[in-house]
Amino acid sequence: MSAKRFMMYSLKPVLLALHLLLIVPSSSQAAGDMEKLLPPLSCSSGWKIEGKQLFYDRETLSDRINGEAELYFPYGFDRMAAARYASEKINGAGMDVEIYRMGSQLDAFGMYANYRQKEGRPIGIGAESNLSGSQLFIYQGHHFVHIQMTGTEAVVPETLAECAQTVVSRLPGNKSRPPELSILDRSEMVKGTERYLPQSLLGYDFLNRGIMTDAVVEGANLQIFLLLASTAESASTVFERFRSQLTQGKIESGGKSATFLEGIDSLYGPVIILKQGGCLAGALKFSGNKGVRALLESVCR
Amino acid sequence: MESSDKKGMNRRTFIKTGVVGTAAALIAPPVLAESLQKMAASDPSPFPKPVYRILGRTGLKITVVSFGAMLTPEPEVIRVAIEQGVNYIDTARKYMNGKNEEIVGKAIKGMRDKIFIASKTLPESKTKAEIIRDVETSLKTLGTDHIDVIQLHSLTDKERIFIPETREALTLLKKQGKVRFCGVTTHKNEVEVLNALVDDPDRFFDTCLVKFNFKSDKGVAAAVKRAASSGIGIIAMKTQVGGYDTTGLGTITPHQAALKWALQNPDVTAAIPGMRNMTEYKEDIAVMGIPFAYADLRRLDRYAEAIAPYYCSFCGSCEAGCPRGVDISTVNRALMYAEGGYRDLSLARATYAELPHRATAASCIDCEGCTARCVNGLNISAKMDRAHAVLA
Asked: What distance in Å separates the CA atoms of residue B46 and residue B19, rounded to the nearest whole number?
């Protein structure tokens, strides 16, 4: 055996042991300042922490939620803190609290909107909240919170709310909604249907960073989308890309640098797109186009 | 067993009769049907003929590239896939707290008889009441009266395969016609789970959705083979190893090669890549019927080589060798956010900014010789230089 090989063989166990010693367990690897966010002892009266707080980052999130982690990454997921609080009265019952730190307030809203249930109800905690059955979803600042009660059929909404209040009081940020959503504060928009998608709006990879909402114009339902933070140049690029895939595409000037594009999209049927400077907004799934152009103009104004 | 339906039709004929015919019939607005007709007339679709295999002892004949709906935000994308002939859609009660099932429900409206639906009970559900509740909720959300394959979600060992209450609930649901077949899914400890399905004397579960890709070890391949031989229908997931963004790696596009790698294995009935948008859908679906070639093998090799210099496991072993206390693993992680699959410079800079200045790559600038060593052979000095240039 050569000296080099001898060294390799003799050092291998040492290196392996050193390697193992220095590997920080994934559950604590990403703790950082997230440690302060979870209630250390109790989440709700009679619900005490069970086991350790766990922390996950982009490399380890899938250890906890499997492939669903991929949903979080486009929203700038950074870290997650999780803990289970067990009931002192009901054997086996617990509340799992998960706090996800997302890239921005808008990203946190985006995740919240992905999970928000139509039949859920707000409970006035955080920027927005949605309680349905045994689950509660909240966002505040950059944080998206999911609380789930398991192990009991007797879910008490007040207990979930108390836990949520305890958690939210420890989160930075205020109760405001992302400023980007203020564009949708119009009577035509259907509240509670807003969504934010950081990529693949409408299922197209050229439409990124946009918000969508249901709307009602002249008594008819439709959907509105708006690209965020686009420049005149990027809006023009997307506009042309959209135009190239439409059939029966027709462009009309709307005056004051506004350009309308009407056509038939292969997935959605008739669509109307407005480009005005750096604003690109569109309408789809409408039965009649009365009032649609005016609504898009007001969105871009 | 592999077959391609609509033999004798060329692609254009198939598109006109199959796709447009279906679309025109099922998507009500005449204007849309008309536009689709025009599209088909003027622009032959790149979609291939569907290729089918039999899903083990279920006997279901499903498309080899099927639809993983988890990441799909719009039902219209799924609907196009169904119109093109994709006939197996995979969702779960857990995804987006059931909203993914809602999206699938919208997509399949009016087309239920053309497809097989696979969903999953909640990972924490074990009792009879919980399993029944999950399935009933899924049926309601999907807007259907039956689920073709209901799967126990995310098994990490064999324990849940043998829970009597779970089986009792599934047996009842089968008797009621609410589910047709039962399966399991596994991302972890796949060999134990697959072997337990085979060794189960009751042969209770018929399918396994298993993480299986070109990075999987031989043990998983052997377990997949054994399971398939005993009649378990094998569906592969995570075939593209997380679908790394490779835009920064030149012309290497390994996603199709990775999908083909999984499908070249006759023990695998189908794969269910997640598809966010039409581009991903077209990329994945184009693989149907195309064999895994030597060029694909090279592509995967090149991909592995290409990511090797960037790949840090963040073990931190190297840090003991740095006299200046640089947090090398975090610096590397930040660099990965900037230049790896994430391509997120703001996240990279935010991660880097969290480090105390002395722990950043700035400490390496006037260091005369790097003494930190990587157990995987990464050039740490070069990585720190790069990180300082990109992130400081």
From this structure: 12
What is d(CA B333, CA B330) in angstroms, rounded to the nearest whole number? 5
Around B138, how many Cα atoms within 13 Å sit in the side-chain half-sphere?
Answer: 27
Residue of chain A nearest B30, judged by CA positions: A269
Q: What letter would DSSP give residue B51?
A: E
Q: pLDDT per residue over B90-145, tens digit each?
A: 999 988 889 999 999 999 999 999 999 999 999 889 999 999 999 999 999 999 99
Shortest CA distance from B320: residue in chain A = A22
**A16 lies within 8 A of chain B by CB:** no
The conformation of residue A281, written as its DSSP 8-state character, comes to E
The ipTM estimated for the assembled molecules is 0.78
State how far residue A137 is from chain B, nearest Cα, in angstroms.
10
- Mutation target to probe the B interface, by most B beta carbons within 10 A, among A56, A144, A200 is A200
Given an 8 Å threshold on Cβ–Cβ distance, is A268 in contact with B76?
A: yes
Going from the C-alpha of B27 to that of each of A209, A282, B144, B152, the distances in angstroms are 28, 21, 19, 34
CB B35 within 8 A of CB A266: yes
| Residue B310 annotated in active site | no
Least CB-CB distance to B80: which of A78, A197, A267? A267
Gap from B317 CA to chain A (nearest CA, Å): 6
Written as six digits, the tokens of A101 are: 């730190």
Taking an 8 Å cut-off on Cβ atoms, the answer to whether B277 and A200 are in contact is: yes
3-state secondary structure of A35: helix
Measured in angstroms, the CA of A37 and the nearest CA of chain B are apart by: 17
Amino acid code (one letter) for A286: F
A-B C-beta contacts closer than 8 Å? 115
C-alpha closest to that of A122 among A110, A133, A131, A112: A131
**A196-253 pLDDT tens trace:** 999 999 999 999 999 999 999 999 999 999 999 778 899 999 999 999 988 877 777 7
Q: Is B270 helix (H, G, I), strand (E, B) or coil?
A: strand
Residue listed under structure tokens 């928000």: A116
Contacts of A57 in chain B (CB under 8 A): 333
CB proximity list for B140: less than 8 A, separation 6 or greater = none
pTM of the full structure: 0.75
Partner-chain contact B154 A266, CB within 8 Å:
no
Contact, A72 vs B71, CB < 8 A? no
Q: For chain B, what's the residue count?
A: 392
Residue found under tokens 């309680």: A131
Closest alpha carbon to A100 in A89, A85, A91, A110: A110
Structure tokens at B145: 């009266």
